[in-house]
Write a structure and sequence with these properties.
Blueprint (H helix, E strand, L loop, with lengths): L5 E4 L9 H14 L6 H8 L4 H12 L3 H4 L2 H15 L6 H7 L4 E5 L3 H10 L10 E3 L11 H10 L6 E5 L2 H9 L3 E5 L7 H9 L4 E3 L2 H12 L9
Parallel strand pairs: 1-2, 1-4, 2-3, 4-5, 5-6
Helix pairs in contact: 1-5, 2-10
Length: 231
Amino acid sequence: MTGFSAIIWDCDGVLIDSEVIACGVMLDHFASLGYNMMLEDFIIRFMGKNFRRICAEIADETGIDIQAGFDADAYKAEQYAAFEKSLQPSVGVREFLQSCAVPVAVASGSELARLHLTLDVTDLRAFFGAHIYSADMVPNGKPAPDIFLHAAKRLGVAPEQCLVIEDGIHGIHGAQAAGMEVWAYLGGSHMTPRAREAVLAAAPDRHFDDMAGLANAFRQRQSPIVKAKAI
């Protein structure tokens, strides 16, 4: 196995422990419009998808037009306030990024303004520079491969040389469709046994419960052991 030339990171639930906060606020607003769902079910089904896709699926299934009555300004204000109050980076991710010797990018279903806010709050934004990409920048969000291919192109790295770190079914499928190896991080506070089972069923190439294990596996992959030739 060869090493990787770049890492493409999902943001929510991977770089930052945000899924419980973000999905909880969204569900409260959806409930006010007549759509109710348990938080765990919502995370398993919709984690990684952008807002437009979520609303389209709900409309197709229930006939409820979330977007028509959704107060986006109130939602963003409440969500951003919750992030500023409680959001934390994933344990060990800063140390991983500090030691990482290959280019990195963010490829997320969240809008760009939210990505900038959450990465600023958690003091991670500087690691990525201009390589922070939102699904709003491409025709199709996850599980389409568009956002991953876009990030690879901007990094100047071939897709097959990229490693994707994901925590969601749709992100794993998108990375696979892009021809990239994908490792699943399962250490977020949203990762219940059912959510974990659903992610593993998407068949990531590897999975980890903490950043230390992920970082160790990455270092080993970048420095493969060369077997001595038989005499």
